[in-house]
Each structure stands twice: as structure tokens, then as C-alpha cells.
Predict the 3D structure of the following.
Amino acid sequence: MDVIPNEPMAFRGILWGQRLESLTGRTFLKVKEEGDVSSYRLEKDTLKIGGVKVSDIIYDFYRGRFYRVSVVIDSRKDFEKIKKYFFENHGEGVSINREDTETYYWSGAELDISLEYSDSAGGNIEFSFRPIHKEEEKVAKLQSRRDWEK
């Protein structure tokens, strides 16, 4: 098991695994529902990470439990600032560069983080709470097997 220095136990005060209905005082605006995953934007969200402007933040809930955040980064300049912020707070992570994409991964006790940027597609950050993500994958595999056996 790897360790993320200062591994976040929450995102914007929302604990990983916290139930959506327990998040009072915030307004979540549903943007998509696909199977057991519901995606939301947070009304009046501060679109910044590490003090750097981002263009979107999506909060994902699996069966009503918070487990993933996706953040969209528009420019190389903003990516570099966010990368510096991540390196200072979480270490340098594992670097994987392929073709035109620069990618960094951090894997902690329960959280996986990826940060990537390509000049053609822009950038993103994904925070994924592993216990719920594994449950989602297991259910999807079982459903695929059932569908295949029909």
C-alpha cells in the first residue's frame, strides 16, 4: 500500500463515503444519472483548487454515497500551478507520460488521485475513494457476467 502525504479524508468538507441525504445546508444540482452513479455540481461552489481557477467540479455518488470528484482544468498554465500545489501537499506521485499526456498518480490508504493534462484535451483531476469504487466495479462485473450468460 502506498501512502499519500496529507491524504484527504474529505473533499470540501464532505467525507468520503458520506451519504448524500446527510449533506444539509448545501444544494447539489444533478447533472447526470447512470445506473447507480449520480453526478452533481454544487451550487455556489468555489471553482478553485489550491487557489487556482478550474472550469468545473463534479461530485459523484454511488448508491447515494460520496466516492469520486472530477475537476476540469482548462490551461497548461493552470495545470502547472495545480501540479505544484499537489507536489507540495502530497509529494510528487508516480509520473506516467504517454504521447501528449502528462499524468501523475497518488495512491493512499483509501484514496486514489490522478492529475493529467494534454494540450489537445485539456486537464483533469480525479479523486476516487477506493472502497466504494471497488464495490462499483464488482457490481458492474457481476452484471456483465449475468448479461453474458443470458
